[in-house]
Amino acid sequence: MARKRKKPHKSQTSCKNQSSALTPEIQEQEIQALFAAKKYKEASERCKNLLKLEKRPEWLELLATIYSERSKELASKKMYKEAVMIWRNRAELCGKQLADLFYFRILLAASMVEQAFALYQQNSAEFEQQGVLLEVREHLAALSLAQSGEILKTLPADDVLVKDHPAALAALEAYCDGKDEILQDQLKAISFRSPFRDLRQILKALTLPENDTVTVAKLLERIPSSSPFTPLADAVTASFKPNTQLFANIKKLNPPVIQFVAKKRGFDSKLLKFTEELQQLGDSPSAEPLLRLVLRHRQTLGDKYARNVALHLLAQSSGSNSSFVKVYGKPSALEYAKINAWEEEFHDVHPFHIAEQWEYVEDLLTPEDCATPEDYDLSLALINSYKLQQFDRVEDEMDISSTPLLEKILTNDPQDHGSYIRLISTYREHGKLKQARRWLEQAMENFPDDIAILTEAVETALASNSYKKAAVLAKRILEKDPINTRVRTALIDAHLSHTRKQIYNSKYSLAEKELDIAENWTRTEQDRARVDLVRGTWLLDQDLVQEASTLWMTAKEKLGGELCGHFYLLQELICQKRSTTKELKKAKIKPLPKSIPKEQLLQLFRLLNKLDKNAQTGDAAEALAMMTQALSTGIKHKYSASEFELICETTSEFKLHNLSLSFAKKACKQCPSELMFQYYTINAQTEINDYLSNEDYNRLHTLIEIAHENDDKRLRRRIEVLMDNSGVPPYFDINEDSDIGQLPDTNDLIDMLFEMIPDSELKKLKKEMSESELREYAKHMIERDLAGLVDDDMDENFDPFLPPPKKKKKTKKESKPRSNKQLDLF
Amino acid sequence: MLKDPYIILALDRKTTDEEVRKAYLEAIRICPPEKDAKMFQQIQSAYDAIKTHRQRLQRELFNYQLPSPEDLIAQAASNSTMSPQRPSLANFQALLHRSTKEIFK
Prior knowledge:
The complex is a heterodimer. Chain A is mostly helical. Helices cover about 70% and strands about 0% of the residues of chain A. Chain A has 46 helices and no strands. The longest helix of chain A has 23 residues, at about 770-795. Chain A is elongated, with a radius of gyration of 43 Å. Chain B contains 6 helices and no strands. Chain B has helices spanning about 5-10, 15-30, 35-50, 55-60, 70-80, 90-100. Chain B is elongated, with a radius of gyration of 18 Å.
């Protein structure tokens, strides 16, 4: 049957018509352009047309190059058979040699093994001329081992492949059968020029002991990356890797390598099945399918380990947990509690809720759940310590409410060094020196030469006005640690405190003696300047005005210049309960200038930021309040976002709320995208008003949502604390005209309520009663709830004209009633 | 990536401080930083996570992270009952065959 002649493609005909109108030179240029644009197919068609005009050698060469690139392009797309066809066209139409390493490789990739052998047999000389004969032979050698030696029968008996194949195969079989003597004999028969030489290296490596990785690496590094034996060499390298390295990369290995390594290392078929199924779940498997897999392969993983992993998976799984119950039965109450705690952690809920869940674990934990009684005590201590860490995320670490928990921790774990330090310093900072000394005694029994504990002892002695005891302890510390600045500073502070007391009691000679001792402890210019500030007041009291003035001026310079120095001086005068105005006037110290340079202002805020937290309510705060006017002039400067944050944070900490508000508002204008400044604005406004307005409450709600989306945990926590401490705004606007302000329209509320009910549920309800009955029922419910709300508020303390009361801060002892979640889990 | 410190240090869950230290020293001997810096870092972190009894108990109680797939495979391998064997001819042939298939990789 005659074949229908294929119609030429429209574009081809138009192309032909167009090209025939062009000169050959222009056509050649266009073909070159198509070739450069990697449009090989179109370029070859045009080139063939051009060759019909004249068989110019350079055009033939051009067509050969185009075919070559087209063939390579197809091979890169794994279209090996098509690549073979194009290469053959190249040889046929352009008179080019067929034999080429690239052609040989695409024949192998296209599984055209017989053709590959034939190519080798007919073109050995050409391959040798190209310098690729050995590589071609190596590929055929690997192939002859991978398939069967039958394929070699097409080759002459004197071919090196035919000659060396029996020895290579015998060596391989001898290794597999464990016949090492035969293996060694056969390896000797494989020469270093043989195409099987890479196999020889591999088999030699495989017979080495498993810890001789250095020799193995040396033997295998001789195999080039282009060798067909490289995948085998890689598998051998993997099989010698230590477990940690092997398993860290096991997911990158392909199945034949895993099979090879598994056999050599003694991993059973169950493990291979587990690995295969796990790989099917992807790189980050979700909890539910992983749980099913773990339960299915619990024996492979080890029952105890599998159960533990499964419990952890329950905490992250949102689906049914029946598969776990079917295998292991219901978890114990303690396990339920742990699952809930892990779940809370996984979802990163409020730290109080996490702490609460661990409290349930603590309640349920018994000595029987632990390996030893010591483990039980330690577990309790660890749980309480963990609870404390959660509270620390939202509360001040030095809060006195942390002490019962710290005491509990130390009762269960008397070796907890960190908790001793924290408990002692908290008690001391809150003036509870008796308790501080009691725990200090226990700490010193457990850690007699510990510098941190001794430092606490020094500070506690100083707080108790036991200066001699403090000095003895300080010397003990300085013998071991001569540059312990904390102890040195504490000692100087103590002597200065004593000096102030003596000055106050007009015991000037004793005061001078104390000043000299304090000066003896100083090592830095700054410490000396602090002593000089006190000495200045002593001089002033002796009417040595000029000396006092000079001393103060120099001290101010050493303490950071005009602004910082002035702050320290004011602080000293306040500390000695002196009239700042009178004393500054007497010593002829100039007041602060009306305009403060930006750098000085930032320097002061950096200094304040580093000050002890307690300074925020003490003399430092008072000194700073006296400087407010001068500080407020700094608003005219330009600041970066981080500088604004430093100022807002510090002014807020020192309760300079008006100043904080001004800076925060300016920061909001300058950096509208920085949500933190909106928080600072609302925070300052709330502190000034002493309540959180409805408007600000709503803004905080929006802010917290954005912070959540941005994963800004810091801002989220701060807003939560502000909302917690500032109380909820009243639901109704209470005004002078009515006790209950504007009630929302009931119909609107009913509509809102209906919108909240899922459609399917609403349909069910509407089947049971008419819409009017339903609305009547909802109205009744709303009115009843509103009445309850008003009644609840009408207690004896309720005054509708006052802003909403501040909500009581949640204490650590508070806990919400146990949720039913644990019971609902299964 | 391996995450479980017990797997990284090839240790049983019931172990002692001394055993952990020994395993750590052995692990860094096999894998010093110049050989594999990333793995060395992992070994270091694993040791820091479980070197004391207190830390191990802490981990047992509070660690809510799941093991990585590599951890699970390693754990399963540690329970494998088969003894090491020499790979078969078929294992070799599968690898050599793959090299022909992946000649352009």
